[in-house]
Structure formats: C-alpha cells, structure tokens
From TrEMBL:
Residue ranges of coiled coil: none
Domain called VOC: residue spans: 21-134
Lineage: Bacteria, Bacillati, Actinomycetota, Actinomycetes, Kitasatosporales
Superkingdom per UniProt: Bacteria
Protein name: VOC family protein
Cross-referenced PANTHER family: CONSERVED PROTEIN, GLYOXALASE-RELATED
Pfam families on file: Glyoxalase
Amino acid sequence: MSDTEIPLADHPEHISPEHGAPCWVNLMSRDLRSAQEFYAAVLGWHFRPALFGEEFAVALDDDGEPVAGIGALGPGWRVPVAWTPYFAVDDADETADRVRERGGTVAVGPLRFGAGRALLAADRDGAVFGCWEGRTLPWSVGRGSAPAVLELRTRDAFDAALFYGEVLGWAESGASGCDVAYEHDHVVVRDSTHVVASLCGGALEAAPDPRLLPRWEMQVRVREVAAVAVAAESAGGAVAPRPPVEGNLCGRALIRDPDGAQFIVTEA
C-alpha cells in the first residue's frame, strides 16, 4: 500500500500538522461507489482504498496526490451528507469537552482510525466540522491539490470566531497555532505561512441572518467551470451559478452532488 492510500496514518514522511489548522476534508456519503463515480466524472478524481477499510477511499488528482477523502455513512451515524473540514488538535478528548462546554455538539467520537483519533461535531450554530488527533500527510488548504478555499458561511462570524478560537486554540497567547484577523465582515484564519480558512456572515455589529443555513464550504479550482457544470448535471447533480468575487472575474458555480453535498468550483 502506497503513501497516497494512507492520508491519516502514521508514516515517516507524515507530519504533525499545525494545531488548529485544517488538515483534511472528507465526505461521508450514502453510497461510496456512487459518490466515487460522480466525483470522477465531474472533477476527474480517481480513488484508492484508505487504511481504514472498504468503507473509505482517498481521492487523488491526475498526479496521484491526495485531494480529499470519501467514506460511507455507518449504521446509526446521524450526520448530514456534506463536505466536512477536519482541524488538527493535540487531544481529541479534551477538544470534545471544549465543544460541549462552549455550546456545540459532539455527534461521533472520539474514535480511533489507524494511528489517529477523530471526532465529528457541530458548532453552536449547527455547522458541522471534524477534529483529528495524529499525524497527517503534508496537506494544506490553498496549497497543491488541496481545496483552494475553505469558508464558514454563518450567521455571526464574530461569534463563530470566538467558538472556534476557544475550541481549537486560535490566537492563544504563547501557543503555536493559527492566528485570526478581522477584515470587514470576514474573520481570516492563518497558519504560520498563509490563509487556511475564513469565516463570514454579517458585520461585527449587525444582527445575525436567520435565513442562512450555517455550513462549511470548500472551493475547488477547475480548468473550466462550464464544462464541470455540464458534467455535474449529466452525472445526476445540480448546479447554481455563483457571482464572481470582488476583483475576480472568473466563473464560479455551486455544485450539489446526487446526495446533496455541496461545493464550489472556480476557474484557476
């Protein structure tokens, strides 16, 4: 079994990820094979088995580099079908306690997977996220084959920053980890080198938007948004156009896979 088949297992080439930073993204699907077929057709990914068993697979790009994980929902797992970011933590049990103490919910775990431990949780506004205790491949949002952008769409970015900051140790005095900065209605999260996530959803003194369904969104760079949109609809998904971001005139689209999981594509 090669390195690319073991995204979250102990290996000499693996690293200890920066505390509090996103270290992986994963989709828990209702049908693993169907999900693989959709993402192969739409994004050109191919797959290899993961260390954790037949219910998990690692998505690879054309160069064989790991992009993300896809798994099959286990019996009794009452979690949404959605792309979920995982954040690096030192102690999964302590993190689970912090989630509960600060008004969040722990849905699954902590559970052992290979040489690490994972938990799946929701923040106090309902957005789902995961935490991982253990070593990982050198993978980071905005670098290489990883998603280009990871963004939390929430009702109150300031409140969300307080929650995640306390749970994940962002901007803790004297600790190595992620820092945060407030830029207009966004909270920008940086590791020691670059931006790894952003939180948006309302100006600092604005009332929370009750119409917004809080969720984490990943953005994937593609060569041609129009072609990806056609492929998604042909494969049983749905497409919603997204306006270009300020200063960026490239096309964007929100893709929904047949199970309802959403992600954004933008032209590189």
